[in-house]
Design brief:
mainly alpha; NADH_UbQ_OxRdtase; ND/Mrp_TM; transmembrane helix
Length: about 550
């Protein structure tokens, strides 16, 4: 029995999960597996568009916390139900997920997989990951959220461990253990919430709305312990320093497409969790522990930027830039203003687009040269000007150049954080200088100057023995004489949606902010603080 009134979110959840089961058996027909998987991803994107159209900003502004709700009694004895619903924050994250998956599939269409691995398994795992991510963002029952939070580790573990680079097993196990540890600690807090709700309501529940209703009456000392369990899991996922060390390894060893989902969406589960669970369910603890989180956020901005400058591996470089960006997102969340909240949520979307594009362009560069080392490239702009141009656009968007999408979100975070947390905001602003340094440094070394680098010269058939270190098994070991072509039509098609959104949201962020603003205003009210800025922005 559907007690919620809409099955759209249930369909959004089931389409990729059922689709993964349909694609997996097609092991002997890679072409069919890819076409079926891509078709399912396009259907999912269409359904996400329908959900966006059905979502009412006016109703959200009038106080409706969740829309498109679906609920079915799951384990009544434990007070849990299979409950789904979206607010503006969840909706934009679902839309981002649905957008990136077909783009990842388009990029991975001609990617050479490790020997003995089938395209059917790879694309099926991508669809399974998509479905579980939708579940994470749409769940309105805390226990259901926890189930999806843990379950999404499984397909990602296999995507990294079976299809990644030379150290894929190490990276996959490290990713899994870090995330599992955080999840187990969070489970203790989930159980604690159930016990506390039983004491307050006379009957335990996992329903988010009921738990939020009693949040203010829970003693602060109890809130702090429960908050820490959720916070640790989300800080690992985000990742915040010092819980970030799994990301560079996982990002470096994951296939490019998997890396896009890893840094573009899966990491956002952590910052989404801060907004959906930590702040509304533990308002007093959030206010008390905010200075600690702000210190970690600023350290992340500066530390991630400095480590990005020091990288010699292109994929690890992109991973460390994400550590810095997540510091800004956490700063905006724990600065407690609707403007900073809105900036952080928009930053989550924009980071998925810009870093996703940067990861893809890096993958295209590696596919041509066969090496992940920055020193193995030089003068690429002379050989592949479109590739160099897209690299520059993604890099400039990553450093928040005005006119790109990231500028709007970063500006909102900083201007919204300053009234309440001026010191932390000023320190974080220094990270902008480092961002310009590491982006332009890598671009200058790989794209500008004379044609050089063993990867480039070997691809052109010049002197040398090929790339200094062949780190990626997804490309052929022998690169001599294969050329260094510019972007193909398929690659242009993959990048075009990202380019359009990066530029479009840089000038017209209003449609996304309109969806976000009522939800961040509701979150601000649930935290129990007045807005130091005085409202949200468009």
């Amino acid at each position: 029995m559907n007690t919620g009134g809409s099955v759209l979110l249930l369909v959004l959840l089931l389409v990729p999960l059922v689709g993964s089961l349909a694609v997996a058996p097609l092991r002997n027909d890679d072409r069919a597996a890819k076409r079926v998987a891509f078709g399912i991803a396009i259907i999912e994107l269409t359904l996400a568009g329908v959900a966006w159209a059905m979502y009412s900003v006016a109703d959200a502004a009038a106080g409706t916390r969740f829309q498109l709700e679906f609920a079915y009694p799951w384990i009544p004895a434990f007070g849990t139900s299979f409950a789904l619903g979206v607010d503006g924050i969840a909706l934009v994250m679902i839309a981002l997920t649905a957008l990136l998956v077909p783009i990842v599939m388009g990029f991975s269409w001609e990617e050479k997989l490790p020997e003995g691995r089938s395209a059917a398994s790879f694309f099926a795992l991508l669809l399974a990951t998509e479905g579980l991510l939708i579940g994470v963002f749409a769940a309105t029952d805390v226990f259901l959220f926890y189930v999806f939070f843990e379950a999404m580790l499984v397909p990602m573990y296999f995507l990294i461990g079976r299809f990644g680079g030379p150290r894929r097993q190490y990276a996959a196990v490290k990713f899994f253990l870090y995330s599992l540890l955080g999840g187990l600690v969070m489970l203790a807090s989930v159980i604690g919430l159930f016990v506390v709700s039983g004491e307050r309501l006379g009957e335990g529940t996992f329903t988010w709305a009921e738990l939020q209703r009693i949040a203010a009456s829970v003693p602060e000392s109890t809130q702090i312990w429960l908050f820490l369990g959720f916070f640790l899991a989300f800080a690992i996922k985000a990742p915040l320093v010092p819980f970030h060390t799994w990301l560079p390894d996982a990002g470096a060893e994951a296939p490019i497409g998997v890396g896009v989902l890893l840094v573009g969406v899966l990491d956002k589960v952590g910052t989404f969790g801060f907004l959906r669970y930590c702040l509304p369910l533990f308002p007093a603890a959030s206010r008390t522990l905010a200075p600690l989180v702000l210190v970690l956020a600023v350290i992340g901005v500066l530390y991630g930027a400095l480590l990005a400058v020091a990288q010699s591996d292109l994929k690890r470089f992109v991973s460390y830039t994400s550590v810095a960006h997540f510091g800004y997102i956490a700063l905006g969340i724990f600065a407690f203003s609707t403007q900073a909240f809105a900036g952080s949520v928009l930053y989550m979307v924009n980071h998925g687009l810009t870093t996703g594009m940067l990861f893809i362009v890096v993958g295209m560069l590696i596919a041509r040269g066969g090496s992940r080392l920055i020193a193995d490239y030089g003068g690429v702009a002379k050989l592949a000007p479109l590739l160099a141009g897209t690299f520059l656009l993604a890099g400039l968007a990553s450093l928040a150049l005005p006119g790109t999408n990231s500028f709007v979100s970063e500006f909102l975070v900083l201007i919204g954080s300053f009234p309440r947390e001026p010191v932390y905001t000023i320190l974080a602003t220094v990270g902008i200088i480092f961002a310009a340094l590491y982006i332009l440094w890598v671009y200058q070394r790989t794209m500008q100057g004379p044609v050089r680098g063993t990867a480039v010269l070997a691809a052109l058939g010049g002197p040398g023995d090929g790339p200094g270190t062949m780190l990626d098994p997804a490309v052929a070991v022998k690169r001599r004489g294969v050329g260094f072509p510019d972007l193909s039509k398929r690659e242009i098609a993959v990048l075009t949606p990202l380019i359009v959104l990066i530029v479009g949201l840089g000038f017209f962020p209003g449609p996304v902010l309109d969806v976000i603003n009522p939800s961040v205003a509701a979150t601000m009210s649930e935290v129990g603080l007045t807005d130091p800025v005085g409202g949200v922005s468009r």
